[in-house]
Design goal:
The protein has 463 residues and is of the alpha+beta class. It has helices at residues 25-41, 60-70, 80-93, 107-120, 142-149, 168-175, 190-200, 207-220, 272-280, 348-362, 385-389, 409-425; strands at residues 9-13, 48-53, 97-100, 128-132, 158-163, 180-182, 248-252, 258-262, 289-290, 295-297, 302-307, 310-314, 317-319, 324-344, 369-373, 397-406, 431-449, 456-459. The relative contact order is 0.13.
Length: 463
């Protein structure tokens, strides 16, 4: 690890999930460059900046594993090129290191893609590190998973198994000189904790500082959410210029405290309210937020506005990290069939309900999930009890959605065929049919002992 520094650390986030906007990084990098220059001019020559992309959700890795099966050089973030290519040269020129989980199911292939990208742009070969250890889907890990899941694994075709690993291999890779760190399933906040561990030279058991850095990562990890994206609710929580909402930038000090802002000149807002909402987002226990690096505690945290679109977070604490790591295990789950058809005008909802009943009668071997979009969908349920207990309304613009799962592809296909037949088999006035059939994934989670997972990194050789 590098000697401890006290100069500021800037971390900007340019993606909150796989499929996020690909034009987010440009304004973030421009702002990081400007702020980094300002800090150095103000007497902080060791100030540093990092750009992170958070690209994974719970099932993203399983889908990536399926792509890797079809193509051994696939399985990483599909939007890697349009996300990174526009800013790669600027990041390397200004010493902005890049840390991301866009490696997904195939970090080595993602790293090779970045190598080719740099070569095509005429850039010096960047030093790229590939983090490993999260992927537990190989046969050598089967006994470990079986011990934790027991009968839950019996007879199920495994697609992926990935442990949520922490920040230490990221920090070690940066200390070895990596300019770009490509990871798979690291915990989302670890993308910020790793740079902080490296930059400030903290010990891996400095629980209070790690707790603070973890909550910085938690604020950043969902991209535009903390800048008003998920916050916006017109007339109640108005957000200016949402169409060009900014992405967040954190400035951390050596204690792990931070100020959260956003890319200069962008839309959206960073306020006490947006920061509080994001702090609590997906937090099961404010006093014990379990991560691979630390158990973070925001029960005594304070949030204060310190300027326009600048909010300070103070008072976060941390406690010893859990002894186990969480693992998501995904299995093949048969087929998901979906069909939609629209009804409009007088008695539209009644016709949609009749169409649903026709499908029930025609498909007795399938358990149907039925939604009346525009009348009853968000609060409906897979059993249909709520739909049956809810009196028909007078909706005049209703889209019927019907879904079912089945292990047999041919049986699942019947749903789409029957929805299409509603065109002329009735009820009256149905239109706009769409049907899909996709492989289904089922997920189980378990805990494994930390020492059962071997972590590390590899520096990629230059082309």
């Amino acid at each position: 690890m590098q000697p401890a520094r006290t100069s500021s650390l800037l971390i900007g986030c340019a993606a909150g999930f796989s499929g996020d906007r690909v034009d987010a990084a440009g304004p973030v990098v421009d702002s990081l460059v400007a702020r980094l220059q300002a800090l150095r001019a103000a007497g902080q020559p060791d100030a540093a900046a990092f750009l992170i992309f958070e690209c994974l959700a719970e099932r993203t890795l399983a889908l990536a594993q399926l792509r890797r099966r079809a193509d051994p050089e696939s399985g990483y973030e599909p939007l890697l090129d349009p996300m990174l290519r526009p800013v790669l040269a600027r990041c390397l020129a200004h010493g902005i290191a890049i840390v991301s989980n866009f490696g997904a199911a195939n970090p080595p292939a993602a790293a090779r893609h970045i190598q080719r990208m740099a070569q095509e742009l005429g850039l010096p070969a960047p030093r790229i590190a590939v983090v490993h250890g999260d992927d537990l889907s190989g046969p050598e890990h089967r006994a470990l998973l079986q011990a934790q899941l027991g009968a839950g694994m019996d007879g199920k075709p495994l697609v992926s198994a990935n442990a949520y690993i922490g920040a230490e291999p990221i920090a070690a890779a940066l200390a070895a000189g990596a300019q770009i760190v490509v990871a798979g399933r690291v915990a989302d906040p670890a993308l910020a904790v790793g740079p902080a561990l490296f930059h400030f030279g903290w010990c891996a058991d400095d629980w209070p500082r790690l707790g603070r850095a973890t909550m910085v990562g938690h604020l950043l990890e969902c991209g535009a959410q903390v800048c008003g994206g998920y916050f916006a609710d017109p007339g109640f929580k108005d957000v200016p210029e949402l169409h060009r909402v900014g992405y967040p930038i954190a400035e951390m000090d050596a204690e792990g405290d931070c100020v959260i802002g956003k890319a200069d000149g962008s839309g959206g807002l960073v306020s006490v309210a947006t920061v509080k909402e994001q702090l609590l987002y997906e937090l099961h226990d404010p006093a014990a937020y379990l991560t691979p690096d630390v158990t973070a505690d925001i029960s005594q945290a304070e949030v204060h506005a310190v300027g326009l679109d600048r909010v300070a977070l103070r008072g976060v604490q941390g406690h010893a990290r859990p002894e186990h790591l969480k693992v998501n295990v995904c299995f093949e789950g048969g087929w998901l069939a979906e069909g939609e058809i629209s009804y409009a005008g007088a008695r539209a909802e009644a016709r949609a309900r009749l169409a649903a009943e026709v499908l029930r009668q025609r498909l007795p071997g399938l358990q149907l999930r039925i939604d009346l979009i525009g009348a009853l969908s968000v609060l409906a349920d897979d059993t249909g009890r709520l739909l049956a207990a809810t009196p028909a309304g007078d909706g005049r613009d209703v889209r019927l959605r019907v879904a079912a799962t089945h292990a047999d592809k041919a049986e699942a296909q019947r749903l789409g065929q029957e929805v299409t037949a509603l065109y002329t088999c009735g009820p009256a006035g149905g239109g706009g049919v769409r049907t899909t059939l996709t492989p289904r994934l089922n997920t189980l989670s378990c805990l494994v002992p930390r020492d059962a997972v071997s972590l590390g990194f590899t520096l990629l050789e230059a082309l």
